[in-house]
């Protein structure tokens, strides 16, 4: 049985105090379970507090939203993978569309970050997804293929086997416009035809649409932005249909 994965990407929200308060309430509302994996991606500045709050909950993993690809040095404002690991993270989000399109990080940087994560002992959730104009031009699969190829280009096969993919169509992120379950299924099946890995869906996942998305055979979980900021919403999403697969 593959466990579904529910990941909260808080983006630039919640400092240490708010993180402590959120997690205390969330842990009370979401008792320990071994039939799904939950990952929390707080701001880097809140990682240590989050790690402390989660110390008795091995069912919940801690992730870092972004890392630099170098181990250390003169990179003002950046955090390395080993620093994130030291702060309690075991997973790194790499290639998020906001990193790609707001901060101009291309395939080469994504590849270097994936390699840096593994070198420091982190695993990776590699995000891929097309922009609206790419979908309109019928280049969705080509774009996703290129992003996948680049993301794994510096990893060995044992490392590749440990990553998860997040398919996040850029036009669905923070817009309230979710991909239909059929469209998500089609892209997840495409990704799985290339790489036999868990594929999470991201882009306006809400309590109202989570179960329907998760019911698709190749949707293995959700990467949740805005709705994860509301504890009740994220709990409801984590409780959305948990399927068993052989
Ligand atoms: P929203 O859920 O706010 O659309 O964000 C999705 C996302 O970017 C998760 O990484």
Short overview:
By secondary structure, this protein is an alpha/beta fold. 40% of the residues lie in helices and 15% in strands. 1,3-dihydroxyacetonephosphate binds next to strand 8.
Would you report the number of β strands?
8
Q: How many helices?
A: 11
Following the backbone from N to C, one meets helices and strands in this order, namely EHEHEHEHHEHHHEHEHEH
Report how far the terminal alpha carbons are from each other: 5 Å
Shape: globular
Order of strands across the main sheet: 1-2-3-4-5-6-7-8
Low-confidence stretches: none
State the share of residues found in helices, binned by percent. 25-40%
The largest β sheet comes out as:
8 strands, parallel, barrel
Hetero compounds: 1,3-dihydroxyacetonephosphate
């Amino acid at each position: 049985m593959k466990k579904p994965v529910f990941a909260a990407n808080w983006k630039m929200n919640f400092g240490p105090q708010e993180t402590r308060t959120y997690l205390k309430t969330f842990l009370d509302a979401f008792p320990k379970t071994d039939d799904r994996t939950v990952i929390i991606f707080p701001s880097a500045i809140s990682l240590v507090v989050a790690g402390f709050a989660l110390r008795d909950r091995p069912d919940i993993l801690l992730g870092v939203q972004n890392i630099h690809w170098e181990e250390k040095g003169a990179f003002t404002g950046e955090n390395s993978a080993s620093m994130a690991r030291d702060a309690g993270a075991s997973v790194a989000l790499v290639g998020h569309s906001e990193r790609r399109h707001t901060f101009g990080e291309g395939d080469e940087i994504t590849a270097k970050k994936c390699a840096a994560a593994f070198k420091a002992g982190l695993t990776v959730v590699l995000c891929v997804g097309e922009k609206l104009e790419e979908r309109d031009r019928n280049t969705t699969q080509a774009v996703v293929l290129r992003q996948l190829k680049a993301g794994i280009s510096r990893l060995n096969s044992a490392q590749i086997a440990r990553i998860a993919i997040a398919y996040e169509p850029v036009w669905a992120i923070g817009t309230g416009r979710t991909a239909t379950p059929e469209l998500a299924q089609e892209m997840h099946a495409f990704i799985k035809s290339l790489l036999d890995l868990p594929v999470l869906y991201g882009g306006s996942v809400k309590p109202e649409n989570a179960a329907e998305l998760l019911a698709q055979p190749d949707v293995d979980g959700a990467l949740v932005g805005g709705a994860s900021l509301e504890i009740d919403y994220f709990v409801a999403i984590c409780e959305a249909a948990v399927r068993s697969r052989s």
